[in-house]
Every structure is written in structure tokens, then in C-alpha cells.
Design goal:
It is built from 9 helices and no strands. It has 209 residues and is mostly helical. It has one domain. It is globular, with a radius of gyration of 17 Å.
């Protein structure tokens, strides 16, 4: 029961505090602290497969299975945004190329990998005793990852993140590589920010005191 309470507090209580209360903490630095603590726990746990925390060597043999669905998703999403929201289409690269370039450079290091440490490596290892090692832990990871995005206070961010979280958790479980999962996460993040839907994921949407 203590582990269940811990899971609920960390993955639902903390995002709720950011989304629904006045506070003086920034969300991204809080993620970095959480990721650092999660990494420390994993590195000191002899039951953890430490190779899974990076394992870039797994990318070449999984590259096709990552790129093919991504290309299909990119085609569908870009066409959908262009058709249903033409004023939003490619809005960030068109209107603020400097910010767009900064996101491309910084996003994988300062957002994607820390999220992977917390929501894939740490969550899937620490809470497998509650949810099992199959679809139970995958769904738990996806739902927690989606709920994290409640800090942006819109349904699009949460819904899209739950779907993406399923994909990223499965990828991590199948490949045993946080690098491959983070690479895939980066691709879809780039797609969101390029398409114009990045407005639903801007950190400026997080309420501050």
C-alpha cells in the first residue's frame, strides 16, 4: 500500500499541485530534480538493468520500426492541421524561427530524456510489483505521462500525451533502451512543435504565483 500511495503522490499529486494551486516553483526544474533523484535510485538498485538507461546500440536494429509509423503519423497530423486549422499550421517555425531552433536543440536533452528517466525507466522498474511487467505497467506509464501534461491545462496535451506514452513505454519495454524510446519521443515532439500544435505544450501555460 505504501508503494501505491507513493505512486499516486508522485505521479498524480505533484502534477495536480502545479496545475491547480498557486506556487513559486517552475515545472521544468522540478522535472530535472525528479529525474536526478530517479536516476540515483536506479543506479543504486542492483536489480535494475543499468544498460537500459542508455543502450544507444539498440537504435540501428529498431530504426525502421520507429521511423515507419512516425512518417505515417507525421503525414496524417500535418494534413489534418493544414486542413482543420490552417492558421495554426507551421505557426512556430513561421513566426518565431529562433524559438523553434532553440526547441530543436534543447528539447531532447532538457525535456525528453529526463521524462524518459522518470516515466519509463524509473516508473516501469519501481512499480512493476504493482502493475506487472506487461500491459499493466505500460498503461500505468502512459496514464502517468499523460497526466503530467495537465500542467498545461488543456485536454489536447493530456490526450495526445497518453497516446504517445503508450508508444514510448512499449518501445522501452521491447528494446530495453531508454535511448531508443527518447529518440522516438524526440521525433514526435518535433512533429508537434513543427505542426503548430506546440501551443498546447508551451511551458508558459503553467500557472505561477
Amino acid at each position: 500500500m505504501l508503494r501505491v500511495a507513493e505512486f499516486a503522490a508522485l505521479f498524480f499529486g505533484v502534477p495536480s499541485l502545479f496545475a491547480f494551486t498557486r506556487h513559486r516553483f517552475s515545472a521544468l526544474p522540478t522535472l530535472w530534480v525528479f529525474a536526478a533523484c530517479s536516476m540515483a535510485v536506479l543506479l543504486h538498485d542492483p536489480k535494475m538493468n543499468h544498460d537500459a538507461l542508455w543502450n544507444a546500440a539498440a537504435l540501428p536494429r529498431n530504426l525502421a520500426s520507429v521511423l515507419l509509423p512516425f512518417c505515417l503519423a507525421a503525414l496524417v497530423l500535418l494534413l489534418a492541421v493544414h486542413h482543420f486549422a490552417p492558421t495554426v499550421f507551421l505557426s512556430l517555425p513561421r513566426t518565431n524561427p529562433m524559438l523553434f531552433a532553440a526547441i530543436l536543440m534543447l528539447y531532447p536533452v532538457f525535456s525528453v530524456y529526463p521524462q524518459g528517466v522518470v516515466y519509463r525507466a524509473f516508473l516501469c522498474h519501481r512499480y512493476s510489483g504493482i502493475f506487472g511487467s506487461g500491459w499493466g505497467i505500460v498503461v500505468a506509464s502512459a496514464v502517468a505521462f499523460g497526466y503530467l501534461h495537465i500542467v498545461f491545462r488543456n485536454a489536447w496535451a493530456v490526450g495526445l500525451s497518453v497516446l504517445a506514452g503508450l508508444l514510448f513505454a512499449v518501445r522501452y519495454q521491447v528494446t530495453g533502451s531508454l535511448f531508443v524510446s527518447a529518440f522516438e519521443h524526440t521525433l514526435y515532439g518535433y512533429l508537434i512543435f513543427t505542426s503548430g500544435l506546440g501551443r498546447y505544450f508551451y511551458s508558459g501555460n503553467v500557472r505561477r504565483a
